[in-house]
């Protein structure tokens, strides 16, 4: 029997203060990130009836400034019987002053097996950005091309000239590898299949299914961002169950081809997946990700909720590399007068950077001529550790609740900058102005102290801010 009452949070110990999350229940991917009638909107995969994944709804929040979010009623509810249907991921676009959502309908078959399903693509429309009406002639794309399996989801729609295009994540029937399908439309309601614009070389190297594809141009280069499932770990790469990353290339919508470079992971932490971008009115390319990973341990489930979105990020590109930084509006969360320079004693080996990390930002500047270790200490337990190996330019994240570490590299430079956004049970590390990013959850009943181990503190600089809890 399905429980039909909404979940309640029973314990706030891990609840974020300024990250988007649901009032209770389960969330995963960000969906429908868009700007409409003065507000940024973000939707998310949502199961309000338990803290586990279940029949997907679209939860909804909006913001005037990207940092203060107002929770809105559920935007999309699955068809009945809801146990057999789900509103899977998708995107949003504004047309004729109306907000269009394009989403995947996920339909389980009679057998009850997880792999007995089909997927189609649908539209819902809103005039006020709060109430949505499903289009009466749904689905607008009823089935995948004949050489594709039933994995056919996560539409990302955009306008180019007087045409609309959508890409979808797919899987070839023959080789069972991930790929991206392109459709075109004049009105968002009638779609024609244009072809598969890109495809994985092999399932092991590039994934058996490409989820949540997104395509956009960044300073003249086209970028395909997506979340391939099942790339096999390779030395220090692809260590999460599934990956999120990008391929830089050139999209030609007329020939339905994306000429591309190799796949590169975009975030090196344990907890990042299924990202989605939007073009802000001021031209910035902004992104949200799901701040978790399938099958991760999520201790907050015991408290009636699971999952949050990352802090919104701005993407930029330099030398074929994508940089991610928190949006500049972060400044509005910094509490006036809370800025503190951390004093360091030159000859100490261990120094407290921030006590009782809860809702904080830490900015550090360190010379890279020796190793350092940054630890989140809950009494004697280092719940989270970032270690820098200066000879290899290598950063490693370890967590006390997981055996598996995560690794990222930085280009060699004399000085390294770190920006940490800490929010009760998460921390996002932006290193060297977004060159390398780690997104991490951590679980501690007490607010941990952030401690730096180093040999020479003479030239370390650190500043902390308290961030608004909203
Ligand atoms: C990615 C994903 C999507 C799907 C959604 C279902 O995390 O698997 O492909 O639409 O989650 O919740």
Q: What features would you describe in this structure?
A:
This protein has one helix at 203-206, and strands at 25-36, 39-47, 57-63, 70-76, 85-95, 98-108, 117-126, 133-134, 148-160, 163-172, 178-185, 191-199, 209-218, 221-229, 245-252, 257-260, 264-265, 273-279, 285-290, 305-306, 313-318, 321-326, 340-341, 350-354, 359-367, 372-378, 381-389, 394-399, 402-409, 415-423, 426-431, 436-441, 449-453, 461-466. The mean pLDDT is 97. It contains one helix and 34 strands. The radius of gyration is 22 Å and the shape is globular. It binds beta-D-fructofuranose.
Q: Could you say which small molecules are bound to this protein? A: beta-D-fructofuranose
Regions with pLDDT < 50 over 5+ consecutive residues?
Answer: none
Mean pLDDT: 97
Looking at how many chains there are and whether they match, the oligomeric state comes to: single chain
Main sheet strand line-up:
23-34-25-30-31-32
**Helical fraction:** under 10%
Major sheet, described briefly? 6 strands, antiparallel
The structure class reads: mainly beta
The fraction of residues assigned to DSSP E strands is over 45%
- Counting DSSP H or I runs of 4 or more residues, the number of helices is 1
Shape: globular
Distance between the termini: 36 Å
Q: How many strands in all? A: 34
